[in-house]
Amino acid sequence: MNDWAQRKPLRLQGYDYSRGGYYFVTVCTAVRGENILAEICSGLLAVGAAALGGPSAVDTGTSEDPWVALTAIGEVVAQNIEDINHVYNGRVSVDCSVIMPDHIHLIIRIHDAVIQTPVEGWGQEVRNGPPGGEPVRRPGDGPPRAAAPTVALPKIVNTLKGLTSRKAGYPLWQRGYYEHIIRNDEDLENTRQYIRDNPWKWLLNQCQDDPAP
To answer: 167 and 12 in contact (C-beta within 8 Å)?
Structure first.
């Protein structure tokens, strides 16, 4: 079973989840262990962990990179994940994601609010203004446009869950979700690699659960 999905869905008390940064999110389907969203496929499955260990494993010549074959509802989930990049007016984007048979992983980035001053020919943008002060203003500046409205991680995830469940016609997801606040560049790259390796891990777990006779 996926090790991230074993973690309790705790939130960091007092943390502002509309704060700019990267967040690793896992959402699990209500039915586990079945190909609800996708099937993980491989051209040739060689027996043994070395063949299924991912790109860092020794190339035996007997295995191919796995790929994700989405189900119909998996296609809907994929489209809604892609839509996150567009519906929040540049405030939110998906850095990395994977759709697995019974869960999804994604890194959601909430961008810092941007206050824009529409000065003709300048295209000026002031990010959050100077520390402790008002946004930079210059003579002749037009009236500033308001900063992009804040949006919090729970709203992003719950909207994704609600839209896809309505499209499916039944409660698609477990209650809650699992999140990790990404702290630094190393944490971000490790999380990206974890997401990239997930199909390999799924195939490896299959071999361990269903050993060859």
So the answer is: no
111 contacts 20 by C-beta, under 8 angstroms: yes
Give the pLDDT mean for 59-86. Answer: 84
Which residue matches tokens 């999140």? 179
Structure-token match 């490896």, residue found:
204
Model pTM score = 0.71
Checking DSSP bridges between strand 115-116 and strand 103-110, what pairing results, if any? unpaired
**Residue 22 one-letter amino acid:** Y
* Planar angle of CA 83, 21, 150, nearest 5 degrees: 65
The per-residue pLDDT for 161 is 98
Hey, CA dihedral for 29, 35, 36, 40, is it positive or negative?
Answer: positive
Looking at the DSSP assignment, which residues form a beta bridge with residue 60? none
Task: Read off the pLDDT of residues 146-176 as tens digits, 9 standing for 90 and up.
Answer: 555 679 999 999 999 999 999 999 999 999 9
